[in-house]
């Protein structure tokens, strides 16, 4: 899994914003598993439709931690996105 920097972050309730642009780039032949609120999304899911302000947290699993939980489907890594409720 590769990422193109910069990445955008904003703290809740903060006046200042640290601008870093997040542009993930994946090997299309070996994409990571993407899980949104417990639901496995298709490999061609367009992550750009997610609004940053709706995201509570993002977790990245790789190697044994990904396959221990998600089996063979997690062999290329897992991106777990939890939205704000």
Please give a handful of descriptors for the protein shown.
mainly beta; 85 residues; 6 strands; 1 helix; 8% helix; 4-stranded mixed sheet; single chain
Overview of this structure, please?
The protein has one helix at 64-70; strands at 2-4, 23-25, 33-36, 39-41, 55-61, 78-83. The protein has 85 residues and is mainly beta. The protein has one domain.
Fold blueprint:
Blueprint (H helix, E strand, L loop, with lengths): L1 E3 L18 E3 L7 E4 L2 E3 L13 E7 L2 H7 L7 E6 L2
Parallel strand pairs: 3-6
Antiparallel strand pairs: 1-2, 3-4, 5-6
Broad shape: globular
**Helical residue percent band:** under 10%
Distance between the termini: 28 Å
Number of domains: 1
Whole-angstrom Rg:
14 Å
Total beta strand runs = 6
Biggest beta sheet summary: 4 strands, mixed
Estimate the strand proportion.
25-35%
Number of helical stretches of at least 4 residues:
1
Structural class by sheet pairing and helices? mainly beta
- Average pLDDT over all residues: 79
Strand sequence of the main sheet, in spatial order? 4-3-6-5
Uncertain ranges: 16-20
Order of helices and strands: EEEEEHE
Question: What would you say about this model in short?
Answer:
The chain is mostly beta strands and 85 residues long. The chain contains one helix and six strands, in the order E-E-E-E-E-H-E.
């Amino acid at each position: 899994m590769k990422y193109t920097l910069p990445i955008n972050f904003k703290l809740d309730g903060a006046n200042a914003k640290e601008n870093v642009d997040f542009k993930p780039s994946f090997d299309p032949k070996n994409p990571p598993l993407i899980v949104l609120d417990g639901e496995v999304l298709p490999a061609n899911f367009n992550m750009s439709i997610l609004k940053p302000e709706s995201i509570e947290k993002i977790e990245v699993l790789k190697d044994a931690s990904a396959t221990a939980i998600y089996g063979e489907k997690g062999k290329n890594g897992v991106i777990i996105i939890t939205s704000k409720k």
